[in-house]
Amino acid sequence: MQNFFEKLAPSYTFEIFPPKGNASTAGTYAVIDSLVSFNPDLISVTYGAGGSSRDNTVEITSGIQNKYNVCGVAHLTCVGTTRKELRDILERLKANNVRNILALRGDLKDESDLGEFHHASELIAFIKEEYGNDFDVFAACYPEKHPEAPSLEEDLRHLKEKCDLGVKGLISQLFFDNDIFCEWREKARAIGITQPIIAGVMPITSAAQISKVVELCGASVPTRVRRFVDAYGHHQGAVKEAGIAYATEQIIDLLARDVEGIHLYTMNQADTVRRIDAGIRSVLYTKRYAVRSNG
Ligand SMILES: Cc1cc2nc3c(=O)[nH]c(=O)nc-3n(C[C@H](O)[C@H](O)[C@H](O)COP(=O)(O)OP(=O)(O)OC[C@H]3O[C@@H](n4cnc5c(N)ncnc54)[C@H](O)[C@@H]3O)c2cc1C
For a pocket test of ligand 1, which of 78, 116, 123, 146 has the largest count of ligand atoms closer than 8 A to its C-beta? Predict the structure, then answer.
């Protein structure tokens, strides 16, 4: 089975979303055509997020895996879903040679949404029980705690429960403040979480985007970011320019601080990825060389 953590650390991974509903997949494949030229270790595909079709997640992840020969990771959520529906999707993924799953709870609209599953840990346990080692399972983590968690410590305890079920690695919620991420990572290590933690970075491309992101996930926005959004917010091109520069510097600093991987939330903007990639490539490969030399 293909496991990206067996490749050189730090890993370099991308997230995309599939087309919504019956929309054509051509545009998404055009994005993937560009993204694969940056040699990511994997490309993950969101599931049901923002109204995207779940069938399209299966189709696009399979395409990444089989047409491009790049490791495809299918996001899978469990709220409001039955075991039978999950089995159906897992069977299709398996038949299409997709063996990597990011197992998630999914967002709740209200408690009645829950159905047969209450937490991502139950989905992870389900996949392990039904499929053994057929899939490598990854889980989400939250450097600023999940918005519903009463405390960071309680959220970390539940994260440890997911890790103890045998997840291969963790992908973090996006954050803009590297100090917050590194302090949280120390706390995670202190309670015995040993899995590689891939740091989630989202380039800011508009003032509206940052308001939405902060509302959804509660990420802290450093003064420096607020300042450039306030100063250039009326001009989208200028905010995007500043956002790309910020994300590039953020990644360079994270690599210097020995993160095990970078996960770029690409928002299907291949040109933004191209700009960031150009800015970080020599640092990424220098770091990979250093990791390899140190054994
Ligand atoms: C990298 C990443 C990718 C994502 N991709 C998608 C996607 O494709 N589609 C989508 O719809 N959403 C996606 N999401 C959003 C995700 O579904 C939400 O953040 C969701 O609210 C929580 O999912 P989880 O898997 O972290 O849940 P969980 O791990 O279940 O945690 C959710 C909350 O429950 C608490 N908790 C966990 N276990 C217990 C327990 N046993 N008892 C009490 N409390 C508990 C946790 O502390 C936390 O507060 C993604 C998030 C991330 C970080």
Answer: 146
User: With pLDDT > 90 as the criterion, what percentage of the chain qualifies?
Assistant: 83
Determine the pLDDT at residue 2.
Answer: 46
C-beta 13 within 6 A of ligand 1: no
Which positions are annotated as active-site residues? 15
For the chain, the C-alpha Rg in angstroms (whole number) is 18
**Phi and psi based region of residue 126 (left: phi greater than 0; alpha: psi -120 to 50; beta: remaining):** alpha
CA–CA separation, 51 and 28 (whole Å): 15
Atom of ligand 1 nearest to the CA of 154: 47
- Mean pLDDT over 64-71 rounds to 97
Q: What is the per-residue pLDDT across 255-274, written as a single tens digit (0 to 9) for each? A: 999 999 999 999 999 999 99
- Residue range 4-204+259-268, CATH number: 3.20.20.220
- Tokens representing 175 are 């954050």
Query: Cα separations (Å) of 11 from 3, 36, 107, 262?
Result: 11, 14, 27, 6
**3-class DSSP state of 10:** coil
Residue ranges of domains in the chain: 4-204+259-268
| Residue recorded with tokens 């990854």 | 138
CA-CA distances (angstroms) from residue 37 to 170, 180, 274? 25, 32, 9
Residues 115-128: what's their mean pLDDT?
95
pLDDT digits (tens, 9 = 90+) for 155-165: 999 999 999 99
On average, the pLDDT of the chain sits at 93
User: With contact defined as beta carbons under 8 Å apart, do 120 and 140 qualify?
Assistant: yes
Q: How much of the chain is in helix, strand and coil states, percent to nearest 5?
A: 50, 15, 35
Cα(19)–Cα(171) distance, integer angstroms: 22
